[in-house]
């Protein structure tokens, strides 16, 4: 835009950078001095490019941070300005200063963000602009209409906020009332927040508003539809809308057929639109790590194997039994030493052997052979059950409660015992074979242990794979690590300042992840009191967290209605999945590491191909929030549990076969979901009045479910 251009040219002239000035003039097709001098602050005070003010419709997809350069230090420097192919001129100013007088600020502060809404058009015409565009889109060809209708919502929000910011309250109110009914039903919650912002002052501290402002709303549109829109807005001289499109929207243009209404509806609905296609291009090592090799004693003592079920065993193995796996390295697996993993202890190896024995007796599930389901109902849970977890060997179950307690039960005949006191331990013969048995204090044996320590409801619980530790996270902002040997709290991890909604141990132990109201997920190690990684990027609460089976990645679901996949090694976000229409409350990786299932308040389960970064399925059937998802041990069946008091079983093999993941689909997002997911539904199981909040497949593929009876 001319003013910015004038400012840059004047700066170049003042710094005697004639050559750069000429290049810029040529690039911008401005020859001679036909640019009026723009008012600039006196030399030395510096230059502001594109930070709020009228000067910032410069960028089609990026605005310059704020570049403040003391002119003295920039003499002899070099300012490069590049004209981009995006609509409008995009300036990249690289100011190489001698003596380093350059400050570049990336973080938009509130006032700069809001000042982008300074007066640009006649407030009385906003309704006319919007209804004009609406009329144009509704009268365009069917193939373009579906794509262009995506513009309605972001334009509606930005135009409304612009009116409010400029204190045209009555115009804003009538604009809202006239057009809010036209928006898609899945934006209702956001519109409710928006309708409460009626004065400029309300906008200052409103996070939703700021998110909407700072993150560009992403729309994926075919080139044909985009050209049509651009032509219309330029013919109509409708600068108001064109400015908003350029400034606040990111239009991801693809070549090819426009997408259908169904294809668009499947992918949209998150707080900031769809994910840019670039966001899902990074390589992800979704394969499994090679199992450590050790000898399995082949014993015929099957009867003994039966009663070993209750012994305290260590270390949870990976989802696939090592015995049945060939020892070849998976081509998609990360290098074995990509992230440091804890060494296997003898007890871990013992447990792996136990697991192989169990796996040999595992039931092969399928449409013809569904699992039995055992439901643990928490009765009289007047404390309010808020979280459940079950150990990998299904020997213990833990409940987190709203009265801030954590309760651990043994679900085998073997009672829970704690270690003897130090005085008693000193009397034990440490060389004896059954020393591990002797250190336990029989007097403390009980079916239930209650752990006190949190000062708010406990929202997440997770057993360590070796069953020595238990994690719990709470509204009080802490994550606590408890010992299951002594049933006492070992550490309180403080990092989140707000409620922590979920936590989970890595499948290899040692690492764990937590996510909370502060919109970030944190990666921890049990022996560090500060987080090792902070995963920031979600625009609302991180509501659930899950480790990938190879422990190199973490998936997080959020109230911004997106799922992100993060790389543990460097903290980068490598996948963004959009498509849910409500906050996400459950995540599950398939045992082979290739797929991810996600469930949300919209009652849909979505299936994702991690390698290609694509949605590959949608399972409809639940009528309320899905709080639990779990794949069977070999990945044949996906179980989902919901607040609608049902457990549903889905055919995962069928859902993932014959996937169309060719390059075209990946490039454009033309996903073709089967019309009907009913043929994937293998069974629906009702409880009387118990919402399902946890699911777990035992090592032999018996499905355990848990929830608290609610007397309506």
UniProtKB/TrEMBL annotation:
Pfam families: TFIID_NTD2, WD40
Cellular compartment(s): Nucleus
Keyword Ion transport: no
Keyword Nucleus annotated: yes
Feature: compositional bias, Basic and acidic residues: 319-330
Major localisation: nucleus
Acidic residues compositional bias, start-end: 296-307
Domain of life: Eukaryota
Keywords on record: Nucleus, Repeat, Transcription, Transcription regulation, WD repeat
All copies of domain TFIID subunit TAF5 NTD2, residue ranges: 121-249
Region (Disordered): 296-348
Any one annotated GO CC term: transcription factor TFIID complex
Biological process per Gene Ontology, one example term: transcription initiation at RNA polymerase II promoter
WD repeat spans: 378-419, 451-486, 493-524, 535-576, 577-610, 619-651
One MF term in the entry's GO annotations: RNA polymerase II general transcription initiation factor activity
Family listed: Belongs to the WD repeat TAF5 family.
Quaternary structure and interacting proteins, as annotated: Homodimer. Component of the TFIID basal transcription factor complex, composed of TATA-box-binding protein TBP, and a number of TBP-associated factors (TAFs), including TAF1, TAF2, TAF3, TAF4, TAF5, TAF6, TAF7, TAF8, TAF9, TAF10, TAF11, TAF12 and TAF13. The TFIID complex structure can be divided into 3 modules TFIID-A, TFIID-B, and TFIID-C. TAF5 forms the TFIID-A module together with TAF3 and TBP, and in TFIID-B with TAF8. Component of the TFTC-HAT complex, at least composed of TAF5L, TAF6L, TADA3L, SUPT3H/SPT3, TAF2, TAF4, TAF5, GCN5L2/GCN5, TAF10 and TRRAP.
Entry function: The TFIID basal transcription factor complex plays a major role in the initiation of RNA polymerase II (Pol II)-dependent transcription. TFIID recognizes and binds promoters with or without a TATA box via its subunit TBP, a TATA-box-binding protein, and promotes assembly of the pre-initiation complex (PIC). The TFIID complex consists of TBP and TBP-associated factors (TAFs), including TAF1, TAF2, TAF3, TAF4, TAF5, TAF6, TAF7, TAF8, TAF9, TAF10, TAF11, TAF12 and TAF13. The TFIID complex structure can be divided into 3 modules TFIID-A, TFIID-B, and TFIID-C.
Record-given protein name: Transcription initiation factor TFIID subunit 5
Organism in which the protein naturally occurs: Urocolius indicus
Record lineage: Eukaryota, Metazoa, Chordata, Craniata, Vertebrata
Gene field: Taf5
